[in-house]
Specification:
Pfam family, one: IQ
Largest sheet: none
Strand content: under 5%
InterPro entries: IQ_motif_EF-hand-BS (IPR000048)
Order of helices and strands: HHH
Mean pLDDT: 75
Low-confidence stretches: none
Radius of gyration: 48 Å
Number of strands: 0
Amino acid sequence: RNNAARELQRFIPLRAARAEWEVRQARFELETAMATEIQRIARGYIARGRVMMWMTPKHNATATFLQSNYRMRLARDIVAEERALLVVKNERIVRVQCAARCCNARKVMHKARLDRDWPPSYDQSLRASGVLGRVYRGHMARREVRNALFARFLIEEVHWHVLRTKMGGRLQR
């Protein structure tokens, strides 16, 4: 019995030491795993920061490019609408002017016929109305109309350019 007790007493400290070593080993492995996880997270965060530092200028440049293209397309649409309206207005103006000139030419012809007592032959009256129409709708009148339309177009373009600049910021044409 004494030998058995001595043998047991000899193994008990070894078991306690082994259990303590296993606890320490498990704690060490847990701390190692936690440190590895923390380092992995930190390295990922640092790497993402570096990638963002590298990619942000590219993203900003791409965004600026897309914004300028979008704004340019909007500006082109606005200009196209304005030009279409201007074409329609010019066509209507020409029709009204032609009708007004014909009416005025008839009035002038009638007045001239009454005033000068031209012979009533059909050919002469046609020739006279043609001459009066050419004089009335002559080169100077067309030039004045063209200059007035061009000046109006320039003023409208400057006005729209000022509005677009105020509203659109960096709007490019």
